[in-house]
């Protein structure tokens, strides 16, 4: 059974408290918070004030995904804004080991994310230091994109590395997740499913989360 991390990026920002309280009442395990700077990805989402607002009402841990350049500048600020976990992109961190260590020192769970074109093998020297590896199954920046089929192979490779060396990190996947592909993703080794528009655009988000949970 997978853990579920609905992405608040797909919520109604005019009713953010209502949507966070809905997630509190759901079977979701985390609230996924996508931070975009318009530089690392071609979109701007929201920053510290919205993260703080979500945290104020959240009863689930905040899974904060930093899709930003030079994330080291903001790690401490997002931890103070309520992040339980901080995930940075391999592609944005020239000194990834140092960044991961800083996240640990702040008391947050360290994660590293990979864009669709980046092979999992680049993480071979850091897998023993992270709590989470996030595989992007769409090109980051916009919600509602179509799932990239090669993701299954990437997850299988990552799971093989995890088993070979006895690592304990969780595998998270983000982008185009739905009830059709969720069971296949879990079968390949995914522990956490991120879903945004699929949850918030559904007629019954609580049921959709529950259905994903049992996939």
Automatic annotation (TrEMBL):
**Annotated EC:** 5.1.3.1
GO biological process entries: pentose catabolic process; pentose-phosphate shunt
Q: Where does a divalent metal cation bind?
A: 32, 34, 65, 174
Q: Which InterPro entries match?
A: Aldolase_TIM (IPR013785), Ribul_P_3_epim (IPR026019), Ribul_P_3_epim-like (IPR000056), RibuloseP-bd_barrel (IPR011060)
Catalysed reactions, as listed in the record: D-ribulose 5-phosphate = D-xylulose 5-phosphate
Q: Which organism is it from?
A: Dyadobacter psychrophilus
Any one GO MF term held by the record is: D-ribulose-phosphate 3-epimerase activity
> GO cellular-component terms in the record?
cytoplasm
The UniProt entry, under NCBIfam families, shows: PRK05581.1-4, rpe
Question: Which pathway is recorded for this entry?
Answer: Carbohydrate degradation
What is the recorded name of this protein? Ribulose-phosphate 3-epimerase
Instruction: Summarize the protein's role.
Output: Catalyzes the reversible epimerization of D-ribulose 5-phosphate to D-xylulose 5-phosphate.
Q: Which family does it belong to?
A: Belongs to the ribulose-phosphate 3-epimerase family.
Cofactor(s) needed by this chain: Fe(2+); Mn(2+); Co(2+); Zn(2+)
Q: Which PANTHER family match?
A: RIBULOSE-5-PHOSPHATE-3-EPIMERASE (PTHR11749)
């Amino acid at each position: 059974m997978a853990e579920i991390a609905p992405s608040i990026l797909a919520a109604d920002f005019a009713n953010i408290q209502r949507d966070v309280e809905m997630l509190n009442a759901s079977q979701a395990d985390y609230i996924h918070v996508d931070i975009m700077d318009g530089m690392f990805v071609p979109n701007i989402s929201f920053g510290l004030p919205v993260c703080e607002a979500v945290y104020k009402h959240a009863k689930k841990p905040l899974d904060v995904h930093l899709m930003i350049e030079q994330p080291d500048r903001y790690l401490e600020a997002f931890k103070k804004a309520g992040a339980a976990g901080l995930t940075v992109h391999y592609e944005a961190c020239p000194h990834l080991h140092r960044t991961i260590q800083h996240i640990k020192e702040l008391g947050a769970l360290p994660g590293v994310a990979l864009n669709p074109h980046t092979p999992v093998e680049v993480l071979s020297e850091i897998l023993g230091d992270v709590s989470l590896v996030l595989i992007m199954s769409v090109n980051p920046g916009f919600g509602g994109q179509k799932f990239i089929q090669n993701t299954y192979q990437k997850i299988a490779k990552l799971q093989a590395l995890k088993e070979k060396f006895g690592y304990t990190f969780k595998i998270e996947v983000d982008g185009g997740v739905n009830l059709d592909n969720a069971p296949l993703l879990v079968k390949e080794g995914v522990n956490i499913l991120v879903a945004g528009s699929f949850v918030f655009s559904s007629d019954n988000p609580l049921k959709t989360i529950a259905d994903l949970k049992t996939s």
